[in-house]
Amino acid sequence: MRLSHVYQPLLIRSLVAAGGMATLRQLAMSLLVEDESQIVFYENRIKQMPLPVLKKHKVVTQAGDLITLATGPLTFEQRSRVRLLCEQRLQTFLQERGLDVWAYRMLETDPVPEVLRYQALAASGGRCTLCGVTRKEATLHVDHIIPRSRGGKNTVENLQVLCWECNCSKANRDSTDFRVAEAETDPGCLFCSPGFRGRAVAGNQLAYAVRHEHPVTEEHTLVIPFRHTPDYFSMTTAERNDADDLLRHLSGEMRVSCAGVEGFHVAAESWRARAFTPAHAHIHLIPRRRGDGLVGLGEGPGLPPLSPGSGVSPVS
Length: 316
Hints:
By secondary structure, the chain is α+β, with helices and mostly antiparallel strands. The protein has helices at 7-17, 24-34, 36-48, 51-56, 76-97, 103-106, 114-124, 164-170, 194-197, 237-257; strands spanning 60-63, 66-69, 140-144, 159-163, 202-203, 207-211, 221-225, 261-267, 283-289.
């Protein structure tokens, strides 16, 4: 037998100790005692809670890694009474909550790969996307938006960061994407107006697309987040993902339905020098055709400047 993992000798040793026969649960419990990762996990869990609560109520004291009951020595009868009370409290709680008590661990049966975990944490800015607490204030979990048990994928698009309290409350009963920011609007913004949005030719949860009123080329399209936000760099990761999905969808449609399209000019302006540029993020999708007269990056000075008197809409 090839010794590829510590689990093999541990399982055999456990079977020998049990007289050659044991249930799966008995074997799992014997392996748990030897699993250093689980021991470290519960050391951290104890430090976070319940130790601080018990210390606050003066039930226990702590000196380094040594935890001591604050009661002092107990008699045999007192120890028996305390154990009985703890067992009764535990059983009552388990009867009321069932497996939900361990929901935060049940969610981790299919762990998130470290690369995806890092990407999700980086995108969150180190905050719970629901309540906003930082990683310094609470333990942050990388959570599947659509739970794995309900068909969710182990991809960065299906991950969000929640603190342990929000994640435990959510469990695997909900698939709300808390990364989605509240749809803020500006009454004076053209791109926020219902009439302008009514011209949409495509859309998804966080962004929509409209044809430019005065296109630089035929089918010139704007992709715009619903939320009023200044520019591309202020868009959330989820908004950029949805905008990117629209750009890919629309460009694919144009390649098939629009004659002569050989490529695209994609631009997200973040320059406020021109007063008529709307202060609402938008991305240009401009189909390019041979001989269209436009000059792209690397070919010359760039696209012709847009101005109020140029015959091109000031929506730039």
